Each structure stands twice: as C-alpha cells, then as structure tokens.
TrEMBL record:
Transmembrane segments: none annotated. SUPFAM superfamilies: Ribonuclease H-like. Residues 106-189 form the HAT C-terminal dimerisation domain. Pfam families: Dimer_Tnp_hAT. Signal peptide: none annotated. It comes from the Eukaryota. This is HAT C-terminal dimerisation domain-containing protein. InterPro entries: HATC_C_dom (IPR008906), RNaseH-like_sf (IPR012337), ZnF_BED_domain_contain (IPR052035).
C-alpha cells in the first residue's frame, strides 16, 4: 500500500506575518549529517538513502527535503571520516606536545655531554650506573640487566643442547617458542633420567 502524501497539522507552523500554515524550514546540512551518522552507526549501505520507503518517509516529514544519492552519501561519509581523522591527529599532536615537554630519562641522559674516555681511561661502567641509579632509576636497572649478561663466543645451540642437536632436518622450521617448549618439556621429562630422545 503506497504511503499517502498528506501534511499533518503537527508538521506545520503558523506564519507570524499572514497567519498561513507552512512547513517548518529544514536544515539540509543537519539532515545530511544525521543520515551519515545513521549510516555509520548502524552499518547501513550507502544505498539506504535511495530506498523508496525511506525517501517517502523523509518527504512525508518535510516536503522540502532534498534527497541525496548513494554517491553523495559516500562522499559525505568520507568527508566526515577525514574531518574526524584530522581532529584525532590534532588531539594527538597537542598531547604529544604536552608529553614532549616532560623528557624521559633516556632523553635526559642522551642530552648530557659524553664522557671523554681519554680523560677517564679507568672508567668502571658498573660503578658509573650505580652512581646514576637515583638520577636515572630505570636506565640504571636496564644497564645492570644488560651488563650482567656474560659475553660468550660459544654457539648457542651446543651450549644449551643435551648431548646432541636440538634441531634436526625436520625441526629446523619450527618457531622459537615451539623449540623452547620442546627443550623445556624434554628437560622436565628426561632431566632426572639422563636419557635423551631425538625429536
């Protein structure tokens, strides 16, 4: 059943000048913006604006509404997205400016003049970071963690394998996490027995 095009008395306003009834003026930009919000929020297709029943409802509500096409809706959504992305970027830049005013420990450390190793040939790096632990607490912890690792020239596989190769021709394409799980599991199962089974 087609919708009857009538004007409801609630949809009209009385003109103050001559007392005649007229339809309320519609803001076309606000109408298009509302359509875009509906399309985005409810994940509607752009062709939603071209559905006959939708157009008839809009025209019923206000005969002055200018219906848009799916291409116009698409362009409006893209324009809306670009504006929102620009706002987001501006907000990010302003937050970045605020946080950049407060320098991190690393930035403060890197801004310091370098220590001349010619004037201090006996510099003990561990003592240096111990002295700096209150000034740069996070950096000193990192330095202690990194400097505590012994330097070695031994290949890692023979150092960690149990009487044989960990990776053979069949296991060489495994991810590191899987290899680690295999080594740990083998150690848990055969660690006390001293036995070894190849993968």
């Amino acid at each position: 059943m087609p919708m009857v095009k009538t004007v409801d008395i609630k949809q009209t306003l009385i003109d103050a000048k001559d007392g005649s009834l007229k339809s309320p003026k519609i803001d076309q930009e606000k109408f298009r913006e509302s359509l875009i919000f509906a399309i985005v929020k409810h994940d509607l297709p752009f062709s939603f604006v071209e559905y006959n029943w939708i157009r008839e409802v809009f025209e019923y509500l206000n005969a002055d509404i200018k219906n848009i096409t799916r291409n116009t809706a698409k362009m409006d959504v893209l324009k809306f997205y670009a504006n929102e992305a620009r706002k987001e970027f501006d907000n990010f830049e302003s937050e970045e400016y605020v946080t950049s005013a407060q320098k991190s420990q690393l930035e403060l450390y890197l801004d310091e003049p370098k220590i001349d190793r010619n004037t201090q040939p006996d510099l003990d790096i561990l003592q240096y970071w111990k002295a700096q632990q209150f000034r740069y607490p996070d950096l000193s912890k990192m330095a202690f963690d990194i400097l505590a690792i012994p330097i070695t020239t031994v290949a890692s596989e023979p150092a960690f394998s149990i009487r044989g190769r960990v990776l053979d021709q069949y296991c060489s394409s495994l991810k590191p996490e899987v290899v680690e799980a295999l080594i740990c599991t083998r150690d848990w199962i055969f660690g006390n027995e001293g036995g070894f089974k190849s993968f």
